Amino acid sequence: MSRSIPTPLALLALATLTIALAIGGGARAAESEPGQPFPRAQLAKFALQVARRDGLRRRAVLRVLTQARVQPKIIDDMNRPAERVLQWWQYRQIFLTDRRISAGVEFWQQHRDSLERVSAEQGVPPQYIIAILGAETYYGRITGSYRVLDALATLAFDYPPREHYFRSELERFLVLAHREKIDPLSARGSYAGAMGPLQFMPSAYLRYGVDGDDDGQTDLFNDWDDIFASIANYLHQCGWQAGGPVVADVRIDPGATFQIDPSNLALDETIDALNAQGVRVDTAVPGDTRVVLLLAEQQDGPTYRVGFNNFHALTRYNHSALYAMAVDELADAIVLRLTPASPGTPPAVAPTTKATGNAARASRSAQ
User: Fold this and answer.
1) What is the CATH number of domain 8-82+144-195?
2) What pTM, to 2 d.p., does this model score?
């Protein structure tokens, strides 16, 4: 999945990788010329391993791999140091724009029937499917310009800090291309190899991809039925609970003492435990409900929220609390902006328990 906006975790990872490269890793990429093929002996060895593990024909795999070309700019993108860590109010401004909200409403109206069918089957409200697409690729408009083969091969063979991961993804891509009859030489995606409007990596495509229209193929590049069903399946498999809450506001008692780790994504608190620390949660869910305490920095100071199980599911799509909060607010804002299909007919929105304060925040974001 795309990572166009730096997150605290991503920045920490990038800092670690930059140190590793400074020590000596990544020299191969720096010396490579754009558009050059990879060493044939290296490709032949990898092709043999893939053929043995996955039952593919070695010559066919090698024929594809020899068409891969080095893209040093991808290494530059991976290593580009972020200038600063965005605070919540800054991150929010990127995703909660009038244009993005309006585009989400239009997108829902265009695909209403398919979205509502998937929502009924998977228990994931349409607005969250739409909001993920809005955050990832602006509803499929910005999906990446690199050949997936070039991106994954460059990172697999010329990026030592994560070569193991990207060699695995390159292998999964070759399997995926064979299984779904995808042309491996024309498929395009992000500089990290994430594909399609939902920005699945090849392993996620194989694991969570769904044939949403029963046409015998899982097409996550062009088939919206498949794309919607696959996002819903991803969230469902990551523990999404139909009708469950996502985020709730909290009130801090005077003199409250509590600790918060902005990078923490684990549901390691309960409503009762937070209340005992002077952190009052505005929700009616049981006191033993597990939550994560969230920092939402505003321009005039910090505010706090809690994320529930469904919030945790969103962070599995992108490992960032800021990302999940943005998706949640974008989903709410799209619902509020949605114009009924006909006078007197409310929009068909799958039920979801929204805690006090979310609707107000979404309304402000739409202004």
Assistant:
1) 1.10.8.350
2) 0.85
